[in-house]
Amino acid sequence: MNQRIFQRLYWEQVKNLTVANMKSRYRKTFAGFLWVVMSPILIYSVQSLVFKHFLKIAIPNYSLFLLGGILPWIFVTTSIEMCTPLFLTTRDVLLGFKINPLVILLSQLLDNFFNFLFAFLILLIPTWIFFGENIQGLPYLIFALINLVLGVTGVTWILSILQVFYRDTRFVLPFITNVALFLTPIFYPPEFVPENIRAIIVLNPLYILILPVRTCIYNFGSSEFLNQILAANFVTASSLLIAFYYWRKKRNEFYIHL
Question: How many domains does the chain have?
């Protein structure tokens, strides 16, 4: 009974903090939510124009192909950027109220996810109407997105703990993610990568998490999606287990290093 009450309180805290994060982000802004949603939309629009019309990448329905890769990538990288220093920036809250750090992490991730989801749907609906061939993969999109959020939770949990003990983490990550963008088949297919290094490229854990989302809206195949979602589930489970083990190992020192 006590455990059930604790779990309910835990998720109530996550919900309340998520709502508070969303309200504070848009407070005293002229366009509020519009600014947050427009940023990924503009990035997608510019990249679609450049790669489709200027560089003329010969991929059928390239707009859908890019949409399934670039917006999930933006969600992943912005989540990493926002969540890595989170435990340090909320130091006073963690020390003053003894709130579970995971509550703060989840609330920030959900806030970021809802912003991504709105932008994603705003682009997906008209893009699919004009360029989509079938809707077979759309019912599976929810599973791909849930797995994406859980996988990013594990990754950011690890990084946010690392940042507490190694303060250079947040400065190294932008360099890594910027380089990884060009080394990951986000705006080009994996077939463009030379065969001798293709295996290394496609084993990028972030790419494995993103790929099922792309497959749901672009050239869906049930057997292909099943293999991809199983691989993504493995990455998600591994990241969460590593994060949980690392947290248990470091939690006694955690508050000392904040």
Answer: 1
